[in-house]
Amino acid sequence: MSHDEAPITKRSSRDPEQLRARMEAWLATRLPAGAHPRVLELSSPASNGMSSETLLFDATWQEDGAPRQGSFAARVEPDPGDVPVFREYDLETQFRLIRLVGETTEVPVPAARWLELDPDPLGARFFVMDRAPGRVPPDVMPYNMDSWLLAADRADQKTLEESTIGVLARLHALDVSSVDVSFLELDVPGETPLRRHVEDWRRYYDWARGDLRHPVLDRAFAWLEDHWPENEGETVLSWGDARIGNILYDGFTPAAVLDWEMAGLAPRELDLGWMIFLHVFFENIARQAGLPGMPDFLRRENAAALYTAKTGHEVRNLDFYEMYAAVRHGIVMARIHARRVHFGEAEWGEDIDEPIMHRNVIEQMLDGSYWG
Fold first, then answer.
1. Is residue 211 part of a domain?
2. Is residue 143 part of a domain?
3. How far is residue 262's CA from residue 240's CA, in Å, rounded to a whole number?
4. Of 101, 123, 308, 318, which residue is 20 to 30 A from 289 by alpha carbon distance?
5. Both 125 and 154 in a single domain?
6. DSSP H or E segment with residue 259
7. pLDDT score at 84
8. Are residues 224 and 190 in the same domain?
C-alpha cells in the first residue's frame, strides 16, 4: 500500500460541540463551587490511536477569587455502535494504573485527575488527565516516512531510541510483589502470566473476527504453541502497547507515557518485542511505498543490547515475542478494518487476510526467512 493510500479511519460518530458543552457542565461538578468553568474548543488527535476516544481541551475557571486555566486530555470509552477495537474498556483499571506508575516508578505519566464511571454526563465513562506538553512520532503519516523524527540527525534519533528503551527498563524495575497489582490479573485459564496473556488475546481474536477466520493468524497462533519459551522468566508490570507513538517527547526524551489499556502482567520481553515489531510494521509500509524509512532505528540487536545494558537482564526468546506482537497487531488491524467497513470506508474482499497489512512479515516468520 502506498503512503498516498493510507486509510484515515473515522474514530467516532459523536458530535464534538455536544461533547464540549457536556464536558463543561460536568467540570462544574468537579471544581469548587462558583468556578463557572468554560471548556474551549474540544478536539481529537488524528495522527495516533484508534482504540479509546481521546478528547483534548483547554478550560478556564475561577478558584479562590482568581482566574485559573488548564489543559486536559480525556479518555472516553467508545460508543458500542462504532465497532470498538477492543472488547472491554476498563477505564477504572487504566486510571488506577496510571496513578500507580506515577507513584511507584520513574516513568513519566500525566497526572490523573478525575475518573467518571457514570455514563450520563458524557454518554460514556471517561477519565481526565493533565495534558502533558510534547510531541509524538505520528502514525499518520508514519513517523519513518514523514516526520520530525525522520528529519532529525542520527545522534538525536539514537537519543530517542536509548531513552525510550529506558522507559521499559524503569517500568520493569518495579517489584510487582511489593505493590497491589491484583487488578491486572486476567481471569482466564493458564498456569503462567504468559499463558493467560496469550489465552486472553486468543479470546479477543475469537470475538474480533466474528464469523470470519484469518488463516495467517490461525497459523501464527499454532506457531506460538510450537515455539513456546522453555523459561518465561520473571513477571513484570507490562505496558502492553510499548511503542514510540504512545510517548510524548520533550526534544528527544520521553516527557509522558500514554495509552495503558493493553497493560498487564507478563515477561519483560513482551514489551520489548512489541516495541521492536511495531517499528518493523512501519518499516514494512515504507518499503511497500518505495521509501527508505529508518532501517537503523530500533533494530532488534541494538534494542536488546540497550535493554540488557540498562537492566542487566539477558534478553531471551525474541523470536517468540516478535511473532506474538505480529499476531496481536494483526488482530487489531483486522478489527480496525471492520470499523472502516462499518463507517463505509472499506469492504471485505475475497482475500480475508488482505487488511492485515503486515501479513507478508508474518508469512516470513512462519517460513523462517524473517530471521535469516
1. yes
2. no
3. 5
4. 318
5. no
6. none
7. 80
8. yes
Task: Produce one character per residue of 37-75: b if its CB has 16 or more CB atoms within 10 Å, e if not.
Answer: bebeebebeeebbbbbbbbebebebeeeeeeeebebbbb
| Residue 316 confidence (pLDDT) | 97
* Assigned domain for 139 exists: no
CATH no. for residue 298?
A: 3.90.1200.10
Q: Tell me, what's the pLDDT at 51? A: 56
Report the candidate in 362, 366, 358, 351 with the shortest Cα–Cα distance to residue 333.
358
Q: Is residue 138 part of a domain?
A: no
pLDDT at 6: 40
| Contact between residue 227 and residue 324 where contact means Cβ atoms under 8 Å apart | no
Beta-bridge partner residues of 115: 127
CATH classification of the domain holding 17: 3.30.200.20
User: Domain containing 65: what range?
Assistant: 3-130
Same domain? 189 vs 334? yes
Q: Report yes or no: 265 and 236 within 8 Å, Cβ to Cβ.
A: yes
Structurally, the chain folds into a number of domains equal to 2
Q: Inter-axis angle of helices 300-311 and 318-342, to 10 degrees?
A: 120
Query: Mean pLDDT for each 10-residue chunk of the chain (372 residues)?
Result: 39 75 96 95 67 87 95 90 81 96 98 96 95 94 97 98 98 97 96 98 93 96 98 96 97 97 97 98 97 97 98 98 98 92 92 96 97 81
146 is catalytic: no
Cell readout for 138 is 505520528
Rounded CA-CA distance 198/328 in Å is 9
Phi, psi of 49 (to 5 degrees): 85, 135
pLDDT at 7: 45
175 and 300 in a common domain: yes
- Indicate the pTM of the whole model: 0.92
H/E element, 320: helix 318-342
Catalytic residue among 64, 82, 130, 241: 241
Domain identity same for 13 and 118: yes
Per-position DSSP letters for 44-89, written without gaps between them: --SSS-SSSEEEEEEEEEEETTEEEEEEEEEEEPPPGGG--SSS--
* β-bridge partners, 63: 66
